[in-house]
UniProtKB/TrEMBL annotation:
Alphabetized NCBIfam families for the sequence: PfpI
Record domain DJ-1/PfpI: where: 3-167
Pfam families for the chain: DJ-1_PfpI (PF01965)
Family: Belongs to the peptidase C56 family.
UniProt keyword Transferase, yes or no: yes
Organism: Ruoffia halotolerans
Record keywords: Glutamine amidotransferase, Transferase
Protein name: Type 1 glutamine amidotransferase
Keyword Transferase attributed: yes
MF terms (GO), sorted A to Z: transferase activity
Amino acid sequence: MAKVATVITDLFEDIEFTSPRDVLIEVGHEVITIGPEAGHTAKGKQGEAEVTIDKSIDDVKSADYDALFIPGGFSPDKLRKDDRIVDFVREFAFARKPIFTICHGPQLLVNADILRGKDITSVKQVAIDVKNAGANFYDEEVVIDPSGIISSRTPEDIDAFNKAIVEALA
């Protein structure tokens, strides 16, 4: 089964992390949380979820993972100022490994400069950012780019997103 690297920090959108994580684990995949500091307890912006970061970005290599998951909320915006995280994300794109992102998650893809010519969706307020980064934006519940990027808009689309990421790893 797949090892899924999840980049996350404080103010992630609770259900956009917990629901995909739970579904991935349920079907047998391993989900590893990665952030600036191992052991940090990241809190969801709704106050409904907390997650202890498994590994520091300094202690991981993209080659050790099969896919990357970027939950939404304010977490991606906070993480994109960290060049180590941005480089980690970029490595998944260059290796053409699956990248799963929802809501504000594409902000990290914008900073990694990997969206030119890619098909993607996001929450409405990030749409202009992905368009300016050269992506083809679609206002749909799930968009699957041939490169392996699977994107979704909001918690309302979570079931379709979960189905798409499970199928991608099957």
